[in-house]
Amino acid sequence: MTNLTVEQWVAEIASLTTPDAIVWCDGSSREWNELSEALVESGTLIRLNPALRPNSFLARTDPGDVARVEDRTFICSTNQEDAGPTNNWREPVAMKTLLRGLFKGSMRGRTMYVVPFSMGPLNSPQARFGVEITDSAYVVLSMHIMTRVSKLVLDKINLGAQWVPALHSVGAPLIDDEGNTKADTTWPCNVEKYIAHFPETSEIWSFGSGYGGNALLGKKCMSLRIGSALGRDEGWLAEHMLLIRLTSPTGKNFHIAAAFPSACGKTNLAMLRPNLPGWQLGTIGDDIAWIAPDSNGRLRAINPEAGFFGVAPGTGYKTNPVAMETLFANTLFTNVALTDEGDVWWEGMTEEIPAHLIDWTGNDWSADSATPAAHPNSRFTVSLEQCPTIDPNWDAPEGVELDAILFGGRRATNVPLVVESRDWQHGVFMGATIFSEQTAAAEGVVGTLRRDPFAMLPFCGYNMGDYWQHWLEVGQALEPQNRPKVFQVNWFRKSADGKFLWPGFGENTRVVEWIARRLQGEIDAREVAIGRLPKLEDLNLTGLTIAPEALEELFKVDSGAWKVEADLTEEYFAQFGQRLPAEMNTQLELLKSKLAS
Length: 597
What we know:
The chain contains 16 helices and 32 strands. It is an alpha+beta fold. The N and C termini lie far apart (52 Å).
């Protein structure tokens, strides 16, 4: 944490970046209206048809600034070992020297916005505070939606609350070194990009990108990378997890957190409309959960965010009607297509494809165009409060007690539809060994398999081996009966001819119902080498047409394929050396012995 006051820090950064003006943001509707109007006038935002989508806007980014830049994202710890082999590391002093050179004069001709924000309800014991400096009004608007921007945050800090300084610049000054004025663009950014995290001092420096996860520094940067390091030091967990309340027909509530890599169905599950009679779901969050032990010896979770920053393509009236209803107004869209009527469209939004659109690059588009109308990682940013399934207690300062934790990803083979861990240690092993198919939410080849432990590969702010050890210790400190049960799910298993075996979406209710019944101890499970599987007669398949061979394939455990996976896991674990918890090797050897028998 910085020893500077916010005012001193702002003055220091202003001296470095030399903006034309400084604006202290307050999170008000007046501020939103003024900024959005100014961005419309400058061409950065397009106001959508108010009759179709009130108070909503479309932004088009530079084609080189469309996703998280993981290869330019760094953990800057004093010792490289503390960052670990899964993170890009830079030495803190060297990185600060480099960044100060880039930030010097980076805001010339622009306005510096000072954005005080809270992650979590302001009066929650689990809330943490930050102040983002940015020269992007688009970022300010997005922070309005995604966090709790308020002058009250400054009051908390002035009374002694810890805070995270988060510095951002698009790196596109309007006045050059010789004092010449340059023309602005509708999406200023820099070819050179750095997203640097300093876990030992809880600082974030982000340069060159105006895009979401790189620039909205309360999100992945603070809530996960810095948050995970704070959690390690303070005894809690900052996780890339959705958070929901599931209510049974008898009125029993179950609170579930689930970790899926980006664009793997988190938002769909977070907004699930149960299709089994009597079951209800309340949305608490779709992306991030902060989890801490409470005074009763249970894990309690909050969603630190206040909005959804969701992937648009694939979100539609058929796949996620709740999300579509959430977007009725007051939404900031990025890199989607524009209809002739002044509304938005993207692939998967509707079954009927419009005859003509303006694509995300601003060019005419038709159904026979060779490129997609919306960028594969195009986004919507909207308040949680607009969600029709929002849980009445989503913003409760005390959070909710966790009953279950799910891990998942995209796996065409091997991983069953649902499997329960044998105990907490096995559950941590499950989370640590997640494979998933790459999606468009980050740079990389879409469809290739990559390790994504706990769905935290791009987001863990310290050595992943230490992170697994922290999970083990948090669980070990709880009485066994108080630990959430851990499950792994896979909606994406395919048949030999490449077709999905499970219909997914609303039908996932059937899987979550089985999990709830396991939590209640109503049904048994069958033991297999990789954990506990449902007895098929215990799955509620009423009204669902699924071939018996497809159901069998969904739960098939191929010992040969799993032995290969175990060998790959052994290779993967080797990179962590002495930082690998002994329990991970114990679990791996147990898996191998069970497969052999």
